[in-house]
From TrEMBL:
Residues 489-521, 638-657 are annotated as: Disordered. Keywords: DNA-binding. It comes from the Eukaryota. Residues 545-626 form the HAT C-terminal dimerisation domain. Residues 489-500 have a biased composition (Low complexity). This is HAT C-terminal dimerisation domain-containing protein. The keyword Zinc does not apply. It comes from Gossypium raimondii (Peruvian cotton). It holds the Pfam family Dimer_Tnp_hAT.
């Protein structure tokens, strides 16, 4: 095995000097290959030769490979290498999908050279073949996901959102399925990402959704759908409810069917308030924009912050984005961190003095920032990439409601107009909170009914009991429906078992029993009497829901996995755990579907605007499904500290697999 380079030095232009350090850095022989090989001395320092420790004869090293997994003794082994063309093509499909690469990549000289070096047996493929491979890969994975949905032990919740591509002007719909699997783990998969045909009204979107559910075979397993506040969604939900009722495929008469995206509502509330915020926000925006606009000015600012004020300058001044209110909060937070530096700058830079804040304005910034932090923290929970369970919804909404009530009565008059506008928006969407959020938080063993009562009392006082009774009544009705459903399933199984276990001799005796004619038809009251006793005992016994509510709550701020709790409690609370499994799986925001649009923007680019809708769907869905399978963990994809120690300026956080 020989690695040689030319003896003739290659002149390097000054502009490339920054790369010289990486060329000069020497790599130590830390690879596990050296357990199997011995390095040989060479007269030519530019050559590297090695000999296999297991053989004195010369063999073609290309026929062997070092196993990626060590042997039981912990030592890597050499094994025969066999080229698998199908696996190689599948790996290329994965590369194209995860990296959002153009199919033309496989025709680039650099890619083909890389594949020739990596595997001389690989045959080049065209972009058309690569596209077909991705579609075939999608079809296989789609069948696997369809099987997972069919095996889902409970009901399935949906999120749906729409998006317009700026490059094609096409409207796209994204539908994501959420459910709890047999191991009580929350799962989510994108099941549709397709272009919509005009008109984009509620009826057409309802037709698209019904078609999708029918194709996936889950049209009778839907529990809820989470949507934003677009007006056409109300029409769509009404249409879906009518169809599901006709097919008897809706539970609890649709009480839990429609969920409004809480992150979207929160965004509307805060944006409404910030429109009336004090002028300190505008001055802060312009001041930070002035400093960040010049690279020299920005460098001087951080030098002063570091050397004169000893601040950690890795935390940067943030500039807000007009369409994202949370960026306004982060901007104000960063300006408070650099308050002393900004005051210092205002005393020395005449152009900045018009943006400098007075002590009173700084006080207002601090108050506004503290006020917005509640909304920011709640938004972070609602929009978590881990897709939180529905029990976390209630506490966040209550905190928002409470801070609005307290602030409007508080001493800070400059906040009053803003908060009143926010209250109007809040009351429009959340005046009575969501039935779903209230029921879900009761099924969290840290909260239960007592926490709901406490929260409503702090908001509504003596009228709180009316809200609590309504919630508890709906929860009992839902639980009763699950009990009936469970008994119906059990009786049908028992009935089929009784038929198969019946003794044919006894059956013959029954048919010829003369006593049945004496009473004008045989009637054995024993079965009916047993049924009466069971119903009487059921009425007198406490239900699983009653027993659960009477047990003491867990510590309020304890860290628990609520699904794990119900998994372990499923034997004791059989029917109640079934309700908890479906209710807690309801997504509280449409983040799962909205995040797909970030992928869509990378897939549909100006250079790829002619992709067919089925190809776009295949790429977006495959990327999501591979993430769900733990693709990153499977290939051990993590930053190598040794190899990347000189690449601090590279932004690798945007690379998504």
């Amino acid at each position: 095995m020989t690695m040689a380079s030319s003896n003739t030095p290659i002149p390097v232009d000054d502009v490339f000097n920054e790369y010289e350090s990486s060329l000069k850095r020497q790599k130590s022989t830390t690879s596990k290959v050296w357990i199997e090989m011995t390095k040989l001395e060479c007269e030519n320092k530019n050559e590297l030769k090695a000999q296999c420790n297991h053989s004195s004869s010369n063999k073609d090293i290309t026929q062997y490979t070092i196993a990626t997994q060590p042997s039981p003794e912990g030592v890597p082994s050499i094994k025969n290498y066999k080229f698998d063309a199908d696996e190689c093509r599948k790996a290329i499909s994965t590369f194209l999908v995860c990296g959002k690469h153009s199919f033309r990549t496989v025709e680039e000289p650099g890619f083909r050279y890389m594949m020739r070096i990596a595997s001389p047996n690989f045959k080049n493929i065209s972009r058309h073949t690569a596209a077909r491979d991705v579609l075939m890969y999608y079809a296989k994975e789609r069948d696997r996901v369809k099987e997972e949905l069919a095996k889902a032990p409970g009901l399935i919740c949906l999120t749906s959102d729409n998006w317009n591509s700026e490059h094609t002007n096409d409207g796209y719909i994204c539908i994501t399925a959420h459910w709890v699997d047999k191991d009580w783990k929350l799962q989510k998969r994108i099941i549709r990402f397709r272009a919509l045909f005009p008109q984009y009204d509620g009826l057409n979107i309802a037709d698209e959704l019904v078609l999708c559910l029918s194709q996936w075979g889950i049209d009778k397993k839907i529990f809820s759908i989470t949507l934003d506040n677009a007006s056409y969604n109300d029409v769509m939900v009404s249409c879906l409810k009518n169809r599901f009722r006709a097919n008897r495929a809706i539970l609890c008469d649709g009480a839990f069917f429609q969920v409004r995206c809480c992150a979207h509502i929160l965004n509307l509330i805060v944006k409404t308030g910030l429109e009336l915020a004090d002028d300190v926000v505008g001055k802060s925006q312009n001041g930070i924009r002035y400093i960040r606009k010049s690279g020299i000015r920005r460098k001087r600012f951080y030098d002063v912050a570091d050397k004169s004020f000893h601040l950690n300058v890795t935390k940067k001044l943030r500039q807000d984005v007009c369409v994202r209110w949370n960026s306004t909060y982060l901007m104000l937070e960063s300006s408070l961190y650099y308050k002393d530096v900004l005051d210092y700058w205002g005393q020395r830079d005449k152009d900045y003095q018009m943006f400098a804040l007075s002590n009173e304005e700084w006080r207002n910034v601090a108050i506004l920032c503290k006020f917005l932090k509640v909304f920011y923290d709640v938004t972070c929970v609602f929009s978590s990439s881990n897709y939180p369970t529905a029990n976390l919804y209630f506490r966040g909404v209550w905190k928002v409601h409470k801070v609005l009530l307290d602030t409007v009565k508080g001493p800070y008059s400059f906040l009053t107009p803003m908060v009143k506008q926010m209250q109007e928006k809040f009351n429009k969407y959340w005046a009575e909170y969501s039935l779903i959020s209230s029921c879900a938080v009761i099924l969290d063993p840290r909260y239960k009914l007592n926490y709901v009562q406490y929260c409503f009392i702090t908001i509504y006082g003596i009228h709180a009991s009316d809200f609590v009774e309504t919630i508890l009544s709906n929860l009992r009705l839902s639980f009763d429906e699950y009990v009936k459903k469970s008994k119906s399933t059990s009786s049908s199984l028992a009935g089929s078992s009784n038929v198969s276990d019946k003794n044919p001799v006894d059956s013959g005796l029954d048919e010829h029993n003369d006593s049945s004619a004496d009473f004008g038809g045989y009637f054995d009251e024993s079965d009916d009497y047993k049924r009466y006793l069971n119903e009487s005992s059921t009425r007198s016994e406490k239900s699983q829901l009653d027993i659960y509510l009477e047990e003491p709550e867990l510590e309020l701020n304890s860290q628990i996995d609520v699904l794990d709790y119900w998994s372990k409690s499923s034997v004791r609370y059989n029917e109640l755990s079934l309700l908890a499994r479906d209710l807690l799986a309801i997504p509280i925001s449409t983040v799962a579907s909205e995040s797909a649009f970030s992928m869509g923007k990378k897939v549909i680019t100006p250079l790829r605007s002619s992709l067919k809708p089925k190809t776009v769907q295949a790429v977006v869905c495959l990327d999501d499904w591979m993430r769900a399978k733990g693709f990153l963990a499977e290939i051990g994809c993590k930053k190598d500290d040794e190899d990347d120690e000189d690449d601090d300026d590279d932004d690798v956080s945007s690379v998504a697999f």
